[in-house]
Amino acid sequence: DGGITQSPKYLFRKEGQNVTLSCEQNLNHDAMYWYRQDPGQGLRLIYYSQIVNDFQKGDIAEGYSVSREKKESFPLTVTSAQKNPTAFYLCASSMGPASRGPQHFGDGTRLSIL
Amino acid sequence: QQQVKQSPQSLIVQKGGISIINCAYENTAFDYFPWYQQFPGKGPALLIAIRPDVSEKKEGRFTISFNKSAKQFSLHIMDSQPGDSATYFCAASSQTSYDKVIFGPGTSLSVIP
Questions:
Q1: Cβ–Cβ contact A109 with B under 8 A
Q2: Which of A69, A70, A106, B63 could be a cystine partner for B58, CB 3.0 to 4.6 Å?
Q3: Is the Cα torsion angle A96, A99, A100, A104 positive or negative in sign?
Q4: DSSP state of B84
Q5: Residue in A35, A7, A87, A16 with CA at minimum distance from that of residue B44
Q6: Strands, sheet with B72-77, edge to edge from the N-terminal-most edge strand
Q7: pLDDT at B1 over 80
Q8: Number of H helices and number of E strands within chain B?
Q9: SS in 3 state form for A7-58?
Q10: Is A92 in contact with B106 (Cβ distance < 8 A)?
Q11: Once rounded to an integer, what is the mean pLDDT over residues B27-47?
């Protein structure tokens, strides 16, 4: 089945630690996205990538970094500079621009502070 | 101007009833309005979407009504079922914001037997 796989499902971060969230897709989509979801708030865009080896900052990129070395993979690193990392992180992909058609989401990674 | 407002924050409906969720926007450049459904512990999934050239779109029990002059759109769930209990997000985007979709804050729907 085609889809988006996020791992791990739960992740705990210690103070001063960087953690990396994995996102893999087998939908052959060019565009990939990372969103942060907090209770009572909509999804907020962290980073997005339209093609391999290229990515752009979203609305809340501070304290996060990404890479796009392969079409299928778009890992997100939550750095120690992100002071409030506790949230539900969602990875998505789309065949074309997200503003024109559906995004396909993974089942998320829940990050908590130890 | 980039915000999408959504109400109510939570909604309780009896089985068989109609669930109505409302959204409003300010940016007149928005021209794609999807609705996403999210179950606990899962990612959102596209439910239905509309473009402003039509005033209504129906897919099964789900209908989007769109009022371009009022800059409002709404989701109607007819014959609501307990399996519809989920969080619903409206969203909006424009052709000029290539990859940016603005999401509303979400509505938690509970359908009780």
A1: no
A2: B63
A3: positive
A4: G
A5: A35
A6: B4-7, B19-25, B72-77, B62-67, B56-59
A7: no
A8: 0, 11
A9: ECCEEEECCCCCEEEEEEECCCCCEEEEEEECCCCCEEEEEEEEECCEEEEC
A10: no
A11: 94
In Å, how far is B81's CA from the nearest CA of chain A?
Answer: 23
**A94 to chain B, closest Cα gap in Å:** 9
Phi, psi of A13 (to 5 degrees): -120, 135
pLDDT grade, residue A97 (50/70/90)?
Answer: confident
DSSP state of B28: T
Counted residue by residue, chain B has a size of 113
Look at residue A1 and tell me whether its pLDDT is greater than 70. Answer: no
pLDDT of residue A100: 81
Suggest the residue from B23, B25, B99 to mutate for an interface test with chain A (most A CBs closer than 10 A): B99
A98–B104: do the CB atoms touch at under 8 Å?
no
pLDDT digits (tens, 9 = 90+) for A23-67: 999 999 999 999 999 987 889 999 999 999 999 999 999 999 999
Q: Which amino acid is at A30?
A: D
Over the stretch B60-79, which tens digit does the pLDDT of each residue have? 999 999 999 999 999 999 99
**Contact across the interface for B99 and A33, Cβ inside 8 Å:** yes
